[in-house]
Amino acid sequence: MVQDDLIRLFLQFGLAALLGFIIGLERELRDQDSVSVGIRDFVFFALLGAASSYVALEYDHAWLILAGFTGFLAMLLSNYWAKRDHGPGITTELAAVLTFFLGVMITIGSTVIAIALAILALGVLFPKHFIKRFRSNVRVHEMRAILLFLIITFIILPILPRQSLDNFLTYPVGTVTAVDQTTGRVDIALEGGKRLNIGDDVWLFGADWDVLGHVEVDASRRATASGLYEGTHLVDVHPDIGARSGLGIEPLEVMASAVKPYKLWLIVVLVSFVSFIGYVLIKIIGSSAGIGLTGLVGGLVSSTVTTLSFARRSIESPGANRLFAMAIILASSVMFPRLLLEIAVVNPTLMKNIAVPLTVMGVTGALMAGLLYLRASKDAVATAQVEFNNPFSLKSAVSFGLVFAGILMFTRLATHYLGDSWLPVVALVSGLTDADAIAFSLSSLQASGVIHIDWASFNLVLGAISNTFMKLFLVLGLGDRGLFKKLIVPFVVIGLSGLITTFLYYDIVDFLPVFN
Question: Is the pLDDT of residue 314 over 90?
Fold first, then answer.
């Protein structure tokens, strides 16, 4: 055996022993009084797995791993049944089985996966009291919500159409009979009673409603029509594919072109998932967490709900207005990194372009919250009872989807008929309803090439600022007047920081109506 191979084996066995040591250490720390399987045992479990795998590879007999595992499992089971005081769980035994296979994986070369599994296992083993607290707080309706979330994510989402709705606002007119791949000329046999006029656009559809391009008719007879192909998929156009014509209702087609059911629902799932993660964190930290922490995590669930909750509490406890203001600012500031995360999933290019202004507003909000905290009274209330409903339900998902679809269609219609220069008005108005919806709408426009990336970024920031000030007016209407006064300056500073950054960072002069 060459020296390099020997060193590699030493490192593999040493790493296996180290992972076994760490997992065994956690088990002993967890059950110091009743532990029967400790650090040394786990080290041997890992080494036994590594040795079984090594022998199997050396003699080219994979069954030797099974033989080693069978002996290990028999020993583990006999030890388990020999104990008279073991509890209802088998966590230690399962960790032992995993440790054996970690040794196997390291020896066969899956080192990275083995380390990742060990870290994941420790992440489950260590926070036992947090998991128990979470379990005690989980309700049946929340489990139903999780099941529903899984259904719409992994069953419904994959079958939704990936094409825009305008593709379905068409009717069949005929079938392609001939295609000239050199000149791009396409002949179409019309269905009975259908007629096409010169200048009409005919869409060509492949399997699964895939749009392959369109044909502008330049010759039409009673039963046939022909024209030149326009698009990028001529090679996929062949006889017998379908030809369809639009309804001819331009506003309806423009609005429908903005909505792709698969992408729309994917974004609904994404927003619901982020909110649900925040909800889980709230369940873990408890309903009586510190005001700052509640505001921070509550912003992931719903910054609007967090704002409403603290606004109502300010009526009962006006002496804690500075702390309430701090929590509202933190919840509102979380919206900015949340938007960055969400946009990164669907449009990484736009995310990079908006990172600076959104980060500036998020950091400014955190600084404003810190100043309020330093000025808050030492004897002010330091806990918060904020009730969050489960952020995911079919009703909430459908409602967000409808709002999002409406804003998508509204922005596409405004852009088509009024031009890009009116987008700030659309962003400001739509931002009052939902910052996520207008952000994704602008992301869709930019990804489709309808608007410039800097102009999309500028209007996205406007929508976020609009949504931020909407919370200020909620406090004015539902909270104590003192809380409103403490929020005016921080919110104005956050908004100005975003506006100043966008004007300095983006080249948008050509898009503004005042300069045209």
Answer: no
